[in-house]
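Run: sequence + adenosine-5'-triphosphate -> complex structure.
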Amino acid sequence: PQPLQVREIEFKNVYFRYSEDSPDVLKNVSFTLNKGDRLALVGTTGSGKSTIIKLLAKTYTGYRGSIKINGIELTDIPIAQVRETISVMQQDIFMFNNTVEFNISLGRESISKSDVEQAASFVFANHFINQLPGGYEFVIQDNGDNLSKGQAQLISFARAIAGNSELIILDEATSAVDSLTEQYIQQAIANIFSLKTVIAVAHRLSTIKNSDMILVLEDGEIIERGNHNEL
Ligand code: ATP
Ligand code: MG
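>> structure
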């Protein structure tokens, strides 16, 4: 399926619980995002940030209220089309026991080797990749065991960028990384933000500063919204 050209994302009075007999973990969540907007989600652990992302990516269905892309209810958009449209960088990064190149392209036919290298450069992953034995042919172990957490993050950024998705979602990891990798990650996030419509779960102040709307969640509710100067 063709990706949707994202013009507008709208959450309206969204409620969600993971099972019938458990409490709502999202309550009355409403916000609108237009093409080119950069939204940051912040809030304490368990406040519902990743859940918002998982609903938008159709990882879970069965919400109450309305979630629309370009005015179309998400339940009416096939999951395959959602996957073409939205690229999600999860908190837990999945790595295949395969080359760096494969882990960026994911074997997608439309993505050439030079697309992979361009995406890696764009997110500052090329520096460490070129130092690996074999470079892009270096074989990553299951779970990315032979990469640092920061390196795995940079590869997941390149994976998201290479896909040319209309909407990038970043569930930022909190894991400690060395200071050089941290600099690359910050620059990569700034680059990603410059390019796309982005939703980021933000832990770094630099990510929050790069966004133009911030939603603060607490216990499943949006308790504050505004830009970096207002909050
Ligand atoms: P963190 O900052 O720790 O990543 P978060 O804001 O992303 O937190 P969510 O993962 O959205 O929080 O979780 C919101 C609530 O939903 C929490 O109470 C959590 O325990 C619950 N929850 C999350 N995933 C599931 C699941 N798969 N099944 C049941 N409950 C879940
Ligand atoms: Mg989370």
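>> summary
The chain has a mean pLDDT of 93. DSSP finds eight helices and ten strands in the chain.
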